[in-house]
Design a protein that fits this description.
single chain, mainly alpha, 9 helices, elongated
Length: about 140
């Protein structure tokens, strides 16, 4: 049923960031690898690289890692992720909301799984300052 639904979607019809993000998020959360849709989303993102928001790039990284699939010609997207997505950027975009540590960890894990990471990204999540904050945040949110 999911295959038929995905087959009915025309990737050339991607027209907005929201449609692409929603499609990628759905595929990633379902762990449903429909390569034509992911390739179509990657093609749209590559053509609209300059206008991509940080959340578009984060969604792409997490979804492709969840599906363990790197679309052909997606290197410019991964380069944009390495250049534009930072822990500081995620923290500032969330305006102090909790969870930015987990999002950054998801991004770094995703890039590492796909072998698209950089050394400083791994170092950032392995630093005592980072993981202690993450552990303390988890401990306080779990136990009243």
């Amino acid at each position: 049923m999911l295959t038929a639904l995905c087959d009915a979607v025309d990737p050339s019809g991607f027209s907005t960031h929201a449609v692409v993000r929603s499609t990628l998020t759905s595929l990633g959360q379902l762990r449903f690898s429909h390569k034509e849709l992911v390739d179509g989303a990657a093609g749209w993102m590559t053509q609209n690289l300059e206008g991509l928001e940080q959340r578009d790039l984060v969604t792409f990284a997490i979804t492709t890692a969840a599906l363990n699939y790197v679309p052909a010609n997606s290197d410019p997207i991964f380069q944009a992720i390495r250049d534009k997505v930072t822990y500081e950027g995620i923290k500032s975009s969330r305006s102090g909301s909790p969870g930015s540590e987990l999002i950054w960890l998801d991004v770094v894990w995703s890039l590492a799984v796909l072998d698209k990471h950089e050394h400083q990204q791994l170092a950032s999540v392995l630093s005592p300052e980072y993981y202690n904050k993450l552990l303390c945040e988890f401990a306080y949110s779990t136990y009243p």
